[in-house]
Amino acid sequence: MDKNLYDLMDWAAIEEITYSECDRPNKILGSHKVENGFLVQTFIPHAKKAELLIDGNKNPIVMECADEAGFFACLVGRSKEFRYQFVVTYDNDIVQTIYDPYSFESIYTEEDLSKFDAGINYEIYEKMGAKPMTLSGVEGVNFSVWAPEAMRVSVVGDFNLWDGRKHQMNKLGDFGVFELFIPEARVGDLYKFEIKTGKGEPMLKSDPYAFYSELRPNTASIVTDISGFEWSDENWMKNREEFQSIETDKSPAMNIYELHLGSWMRKEMQYDENGEEVNGSVFYNYREIAPKLAAYIKKMNYTHVEIMPIMEHPLDGSWGYQVTGYYSPTSRYGTPNDFMYFINYMHKKGIGVILDWVPAHFPRDLHGLACFDGSHVYEHPDPRRGTHPHWGTLIYNYARPQVSNFLIANALFWAEKYHVDGIRMDAVASMLYLDYGKNAGEWLPNIYGGNENLDAIEFLKHLNSIYKKKHPSSLLIAEESTAWPKITGALKEGGLGFDYKWNMGWMNDFLEFMKLDPYFRSGDYNALTFSLLYAYSENFILVLSHDEVVHGKATLAGKMPGATQEEKFNNLRVAYGYMMTHPGKKLLFMGQEFGQMDEWNEDVSLEWNLLEYENHKKMQRYSKALNKLYLDCPALYKLDYNPDGFEWINCTSKDETIVVFLRKTEKPEDTLLVVCNFTPVVYEREIGVPYKGIYTEIFNSDDKKFGGSGVGNRRAKKSVKKKMDGRENSLKIKIPPMAMIVFKWDKQ
């Protein structure tokens, strides 16, 4: 080797490179100015020869082999910087001309990194991960990842034979971010990050910021470009505020259909004569299922769909609630562009899309976030703060700004890039309480000795404030099961800033009430009326969700008492009727609208064949009609969060188990009189009414077309001036058995 060249080389650093233990290879590799020109060095494993081809030159310069592992160097006697490529001859005699990854500048600015370090780089997903781009006229992919305690990080993938020696990444300052631009990488390539921990142990990790991932059980990330989709939902996005306003007196109708995309409807598996599968996946693609689902949602008069997590997850049985790819729509149903098509299609049909999102915990899968660089990067280091013993999952370290930034940017990502109309945050209660699901000795109190998770509280406030600032018409919904105050309270008033909260208390109380034999419900009458004591403490969504129809709990129809299916469906109709007329937005899990009797199973489709049977067909017809009643009557939604929108007529008929109430708007002519009878007994009785005039029965769950007995009030009823229920006027009506009926008032 030339002595001048030999003296210029840092042999200790070269050893770091060849042993793959260097966190700043760009200090050695690439072109560097020296006294007599430029020292150019490269490390190319499996290369037996390397030449330097300078732009504008025909003949390359032969580089000297400094280490048989594949380290080459040469001295170029030029005074100005130059562009170049390497002509590489490999062990198998294949010759390839390549660009030097270490000749490209970083795409990060100091401001980018400082903001990420402070937890306020809300568009960090625009740079972190794998980004196809052109730098200095060269096409490739820029890779970056946060791994602050790693000894070394490499990109491995289809483009380098998954060899962690070939593309060792550059650590940027003291920010813990590693980066490298790889000209050979392309959209569609599989990749991971090979991380050598501080102990010198290598591990393979998927990209936390990957936009697309392999179909399970494979776990590689996939280079993808999500910028090319042409949205055509301008009208929806422009007018979304009117569909989703949370102003007290402008509350819109919101009737949500919750579903698991992979089991709402599936293709029938087909086999050839040898018994081999012909049609591959039984899942519909996002594009295939969009028109089917949209048509059903419109037919059934729902306003929104809420999709259980579609972020990439390894286990079907987790239903998506154990996420490994927070920025990746699951490849089970197609590509990111396919999912954009799905949401765009829904919007064009006037349907809102809410995504379930899981910021509370993450799984321990080896390719995921757990122990990401050999240290506790995303999870809290103390297991008493960082683990969920009962779930077997890990808890985010919300106090770490970069972790907070990862999650906040992710929520914004779905609103910005996928136009989602809302985020429903799963398991918020587990975030708020340090002792949630833990026994004594399994948790640590906060600095004040309490069980409140102060870091999680600050995270939620931070997230909600930024989200609403950037996407004010997109909704934030909390699944929170405790009495924590002001979940939907304004941030400036000490609240958490959510738009809505799932009313888990109502769901539990009401279902327990409905499970009772009708002749014994009078003993639990308070469970029926208790929810109105706190109905206006939060902006509630009444939910009958997926959690209530699995794990031996039975479906909603299956929970109902009765010796026959007809009796069960009678109970179910009055239950749905009470729910739809009670204050609060509505959510029902798929399959319950037609009375599926088998518990939900994520591995099979809903039992659509049940609609061949009259009972199920009538239950579906009832759900459709009840939903239309809700949409057609402003009194059932407009003042949902204003006490003026609800008024009891009678909530003391314990023995009969009947409740009578009004739903109202600011216009008296919108007033609805609702009567619910939770026993199989027909009553004829007088009830007080708010105004004198004509009352017409506009809805009756006991109608024969819904599977009822047909008892009702066919003719309009005129009030009489007779005191009843504390009112000056009253009506004498027939109350059907196990039914909900609605009257409309006319002052004539």
TrEMBL record:
EC numbers on record: 2.4.1.18
Domain of life: Bacteria
Reaction(s) the record says it catalyses: Transfers a segment of a (1->4)-alpha-D-glucan chain to a primary hydroxy group in a similar glucan chain
InterPro entries: A-amylase/branching_C, Branching_enzy, GH, GH13_cat_dom, GlgB, GlgB_N, GlgB_N_E_set_prok, Glyco_hydro_13_N
Pfam families membership: Alpha-amylase, Alpha-amylase_C, CBM_48, GlgB_N
This protein's GO CC annotations: cytosol
Gene3D superfamilies given in the database record: Glycosidases, Golgi alpha-mannosidase II, Immunoglobulins
GO biological process: glycogen biosynthetic process
Sequence similarity: Belongs to the glycosyl hydrolase 13 family. GlgB subfamily.
Function, as annotated: Catalyzes the formation of the alpha-1,6-glucosidic linkages in glycogen by scission of a 1,4-alpha-linked oligosaccharide from growing alpha-1,4-glucan chains and the subsequent attachment of the oligosaccharide to the alpha-1,6 position.
Name of the protein described by the UniProt record: 1,4-alpha-glucan branching enzyme GlgB
Organism (species): Lachnoanaerobaculum saburreum F0468
Taxonomic lineage from the root: Bacteria, Bacillati, Bacillota, Clostridia, Lachnospirales
